[in-house]
Amino acid sequence: MQEPPSGGAPPIVEAIGVSKRYGPTIALSDAGIRVHAGESHALVGRNGAGKSTLVGILTGLRASDTGEVRFSGEPAPPLSDREGWRQRVACVYQHSTIIPDLTVAENLFINRQPLQRGFISWPTLRREARALLDRWNVSVPEDMRAGDLRVEARQLVEIARALSYGARFIILDEPTAQLDGEEIKRLFVRIRELQAAGVTFLFISHHLQEVYEICQTVTVLRDARHIVTAPVADLPKSRLIEAMTGENVHLDIADAAGRVPDPTAPVALTVERISGEDFSDVSLTVRSGEVVGLSGSTSSGRVGVAEAIAGLGRYRGGTIRIGSRTLPSGDVPTALSLGVGCVPKSRHKEGLVLSMPIADNTTMTINRLLGPLGFIPPAKRRNRAEETIRSLGVVTQGPEQLVSGLSGGNQQKVVMGRALANDPAVLVLMDPTAGVDVKSKEALLGVVERMRAAGKAILVVSSEVEDLRTCDRVLVMRHGSIVAEHKAGWSDNALVASIEGIEAL
Ligand SMILES: Nc1ncnc2c1ncn2[C@@H]1O[C@H](COP(=O)(O)OP(=O)(O)OP(=O)(O)O)[C@@H](O)[C@H]1O
User: Which Pfam families does the protein's record reference (predicted)?
Assistant: First the structure.
């Protein structure tokens, strides 16, 4: 393993020579990391490189097969000593570890509520929660139901909880994945403040510009191995990507600027004056062979509209038509049978059955189409899965591997494969590149381009500039309504300003 030069004080955390196997898969091979107190350290690598496995080992949730973890030079506590681990390290995951039906205060002191004569003292609980939130400058009401917190506030509550156990080393696992531009800016301000107050961060992100913005050091994993640790200032983006991919890559992401959509192509998707929980009076059309972006901040209503079109969410008033046929509200089977393919927002809730193999997940929508007695010939099932694995570069042992054993980014690629399985006429792609690495993004957006050329009507629902560059036009939503339309060729500044609801600089 390549070691960075060490300074005086021992690192706040280090993993030395760790290896981990899952059956035939080598997830980590003699890998390691050294994080120094007071820095924000990025951990990057392609999907399946071993990042989550290393996080599991650094947080004591997984045992490594070989190697060791040390905190400030001392051996890590035994895995059974959860309290000992909690005092040293915490990870804020993309998926909340907060219990939604409890209050913020209850979540902060779960299993360690202040007692008075054997009973929980609610006033003390609330008071201590308030003091803790104030100490770390988290302006969230302590008696709020935790399930009602926005992602941004939930992350801060989880950070405050970790700090209250004494941990000063916090792992942030893709913290920006569900945040919009303004929320990301605020999160970065908080990270800098906490860093100044003595907190050390390990930051996992597939957005490399964020690594340059917020981190001082970066460690790259590739194919289960440690490749390099260096100050970010010494590793320009091209070299960082080279370290991640092992090759000198030129990323080739489709750009709709200069493309002229066919104005006579049939309209495949018509949305006419629909309203729903967080949107009202929304109308749009997408022609066959056209890619339309639907953008806006996380609370703009874009996901509500997209879910209505995919049958996942309800709408009232107005109509949605696929070709000439009307789509009833909240009806996934009809949406599928009319030819709507969908990458949903939450791959865990609507996207995948984790306990099933890749092959079953990619053919699930076809099964549904064939009805309860539907039967897919084994060869077709296997071919479909192999096609997804090949075209999207899924890192896997093969079509029979359970989806639960895939890394996050590779699960996302399977969701895309599933969306394409019923040969849809209309594709609704919500945050299609969330959690995928730079090169996989190229592959996924390449699929969008191929589908467009094949005459599909595609709605890309995202606020990622790179996703939106594939679009012939981008509709921007704010407060539940479409407020702007940008034809391909927009400047990044103008589009981002429009999404954020501010004037372009
Ligand atoms: N529970 C498991 N069972 C089988 N294989 C697993 C399991 N967890 C991880 N793996 C495998 O270990 C390898 C490393 O996965 P890991 O989740 O650590 O990658 P990652 O770098 O976090 O990827 P991503 O960016 O996609 O989240 C992958 O090949 C993955 O398929």
Answer: ABC_tran
Nearest to 213 by CA among 66, 419, 42: 42
What is the C-alpha to C-alpha distance for residues 123 and 365, in angstroms, rounded to an integer?
52
CA distance 284 to 275: 13
Q: Tell how far the Cα of 224 is from the centroid of ligand 1, in angstroms.
A: 9
Q: State the fold for domain 13-98+149-245.
A: Rossmann fold (3.40.50)
49 lines ligand 1 (CB under 6 A): yes
Q: Report the SS3 class of residue 227.
A: strand
Q: Separation of 410 CA from ligand 1 center, angstroms?
A: 9
CATH architecture of 267-500: 3-Layer(aba) Sandwich (3.40)
- Whether 13-98+149-245 shares its CATH topology with 267-500 is answered yes
Q: Residue 347: helix, strand or coil by DSSP?
A: helix
Q: How confident is the model at residue 505 (pLDDT cuts 50, 70, 90)?
A: very low
Closest CA to 196 of 42, 13, 88, 37: 37
3-state secondary structure of 314: coil
User: Which atom of ligand 1 sits closest to the CA of residue 206?
Assistant: 25
Q: Domain map of the chain by residue range?
A: 13-98+149-245, 267-500
Q: What share of the chain is helix, strand, coil (3-state, %, to 5)?
A: 35, 25, 40
b/e code 317-331 from CB counts within 10 Å (16+ = b): ebebbbeeeebebee
| Whether residue 412 has its Cβ less than 6 Å from ligand 1 | no
ipTM of the complex: 0.98
Task: State how far the alpha carbon of 331 is from the alpha carbons of 214, 266, 312, 370, in Å.
Answer: 43, 24, 7, 16
Q: Which two tokens stand for residue 74?
A: 């001392």
Separation of 27 CA from ligand 1 center, angstroms? 6
248 burial (CB, 10 Å; 0-12 / 13-18 / 19+) is exposed
Query: Is 22's C-beta closer than 6 angstroms to any atom of ligand 1?
Result: yes
Rounded to the nearest angstrom, the gap between the alpha carbon of residue 477 and the centroid of all alpha carbons in its chain is: 21
Structure tokens at 199: 């907190």
Q: How far apart are CA 67 and CA 224, in angstroms?
A: 14
Q: Which helix (H) or strand (E) holds 342?
A: strand 340-343
Q: 190 is written with which tokens?
A: 């908080």
Distance, CA 322 to ligand 1 centroid (Å)? Answer: 38
pLDDT digits (tens, 9 = 90+) for 42-69: 999 999 999 999 999 999 999 999 999 9
∠ Cα 137 212 9 (to 5°): 70
- Taking all residues of the chain, what is their mean pLDDT, rounded to a whole number? 89
Residue 55 CA: which ligand 1 atom is closest? 18
Is the Cβ–Cβ distance between 141 and 260 less than 8 Å? no
In the numeric block, which tokens belong to residue 297? Answer: 């901040």
Dihedral, CA atoms, 194, 198, 202, 136, nearest 10 degrees? -30
Pairing of strands 225-231, 217-222: antiparallel
